Input
Amino acid sequence: MSSYQFFASDTPLREYENPKIKLKADDKSTTLLYSTADGSCEMRIILEDDADLRKSYTTLAYSTYIEWSYSAENAKIVIAYIKEHLQSASKIQLWNAWLGDKSLPQKKKLPVDELKKKHILELWGNGFSGRTECLEIDRV
Output
């Protein structure tokens, strides 16, 4: 089984490429060309093209998944990404899922003006909690 961390929304989400990293891609692989020793700058948010995977967790029509290592700096970027998205959307969901987990997800809701780095840390910064979780952030 694998963990799957992703955003979901009822409006299209944008991709994010961290300007601190450079990727070199060819037909067979992608190579990280720049990184810090602890991986703290590594982060990408990528459009999800597997609708069936998304639909197994949410009814929202759009999703992106995140490739990253948690850091306080990356949490700030995630919060900015969420706030920017909520300028045109009513809500965004953050999922921490264990592929193949059939138990009911633990869901929490939070207005965007209460969103802090600690919420990102609790959901995505501590690895997988042992169950599928969703944090829904609402525009107020």
